[in-house]
Structures
1.
Amino acid sequence: MFWKFGKNSSSTTEEVRKKLPKPRSIVEKVGRYLITEMKQNPDQVWSLQSVTRPDEVDRKRVNFRVFDYASVSAAKVNVRDYHSLDAYPEHILWEGWYPKDDYHVYLTMNDDN
């Protein structure tokens, strides 16, 4: 009669990976930064997608990666979350971070493109 509600007895805390968000349209503040500061084509920027994750050190930061969905799908790469692009750095156009409570964006351009 000892039930473990909400817990799987076969999994350990090391095996449980924090669920990360799925790919979405590019984050608005990142898109605005690419258009205004980096002078990128607005039509191209708003067709891009991004994946995010909370920063491991600072909880007020969000790490992001920007990629082109068309080129990723043509290469048959399955992007499920932020770490899915670890094995395919050539598909990352920009990556960086932004504070949750601010409008600033800090990014680097991938030189593989």
2.
Amino acid sequence: MGRKPVAAWGRFGASPPLSPSHTLALLQREYDSYISELAVSAAREHLAGAIEQARTSGEPVYVTRRGRRVAVIVDVEAYDSLVEAAEDGLDEVELAAARAEDDYVPWEQAKADLGLV
């Protein structure tokens, strides 16, 4: 008798290919492992731990009430970065609007007006 054929995935101890629904379930579980949620009642008891988790992982910890997100705990550096990015985005929008209305002072002129040149 000859040897039985072995699928390539079985030869190396790998798992067999998954159906799309199984793949989606695995991806969702993997995604959920990165998303931290904590009920308000648990947050009262574990606030220090939640803050430490957000600080060390760099990922937000969502605080929920009745299954709905009501607050978020984030590392201060991540928060500052988000605020800075939002402010930069608003500045760009305001500058574009001012240029569209021809209502701005070019940087070189502003420096000259302030005696910085």
3.
Amino acid sequence: MVSRNDAVDGGRRRSIFEEVAAERSAQDARWGGPALDDLHGSYDWVAYLVHDLGKAIAWPWDASTFRRQMISVAALAVAAVEWVDRGDARDARELVDRTSGEGNLGDLP
């Protein structure tokens, strides 16, 4: 049986997922989508995520900034998963070896 609190939390979670999806679309529009994403490797994705995580901590701490950055990090994590899923499984090792650490990390905002 679903309690009222579970329903409220489920609605809140759905709203958060919608924000992440909207941010993911905005990132594609800003950075060029899969065509650019596929030029990066696993090390690049980790660097991008760490960079955005670092922007979440500001002094004085601000809940709004933290929340906004967590939405951005979640959307970026989705992009990384999409990148993995677009790679052909039998060529995954080659894709990682060829691109990891070779991306355009200097392009970070």
4.
Amino acid sequence: MSLPKLRSDLEQINQELFKIILHRREVVEKIQSFKSKDGDFPFYDEKREKELFEKIQADLEKLTPKELLAFSLLIESQAQIGDERNYPSWFKGDVLKSTNPNLLF
């Protein structure tokens, strides 16, 4: 495989990553809108967060500290779209502390 081909592959991956991030934000906004209209669902559900972490824990453990930080910041910034004050900080490790302390950096 050539260097130009690898660079081209990386550029394509970057474009796909950007699209996924933006799509994720759109879905989060729809969920938060639903929660605010319905009123029966809290913006932050600790049980649901723990379940999500358990599902992705093995993948999180494969990340470098900087990759984990980037992922955490992405999740936190999007989750706070609806209610920043009541959502725990992933960056500070609020959620990670309750699931797997080995993931803290």
